[in-house]
Predict the structure.
Amino acid sequence: MLSSSERPLATVPRPVLALLAIALCLQIAWQALQPGPSARAEALGDPAPIAVLRPLALGEPIALAQLLTLYLQAFDNQPGVSIPFLELDYGRVIAWLDAVLELDPVGQYPLMMASQIYGPVPDEAKQRQMCAFVRRQFERDPDHRWRWLAHCAIMAKHRLHDMRLALDYAEAITVHARHASGWARQMAFSAVCISPNTPLAVTTSEMTPTRVASTPA
């Protein structure tokens, strides 16, 4: 039942109904002509400075490190779009990985991402960027980060075809990672003797750390 303040639709003047119909059609047409969702690789900004992130963690730096990792992982796969790793600004990606490791130094996941997710892109400069990042982080904790440098040594030989770089990484493991597995400590002596026909996924299967801390659920 209509209240006294309401009028039946039939009493609305036809020109008004026509205008409403036209407005609705224009709104539908406008939405249909809008471009689909898009994401730009350069839209990945720099992370907040660690001096800002530590207070924001509220005493839970590992939890914040996980959130930053999830954000970085999800950035290349936004609603309706997907950004190839190749288009990402690797300087900024490394800044995010650095921030995560500052919050959770025991965590291994950022190094796995660098060596096995962002590293294998078909771009030599970006491969070298990720390897250099892993090498720098290895120096801060050789006994817990040697696995990822070993992966980079293999990548340097078989993807970059840079034996000198591969040997540099292998020798670093031999000299500094006293608790590394025997096969890794012997890489320098065997000149990284892994068949180039062996898939890297198989070659690096032994590199699974005993504790991959802060791996997002």
About this structure: The chain is about 55% helix and 0% strand. The radius of gyration is 27 Å.
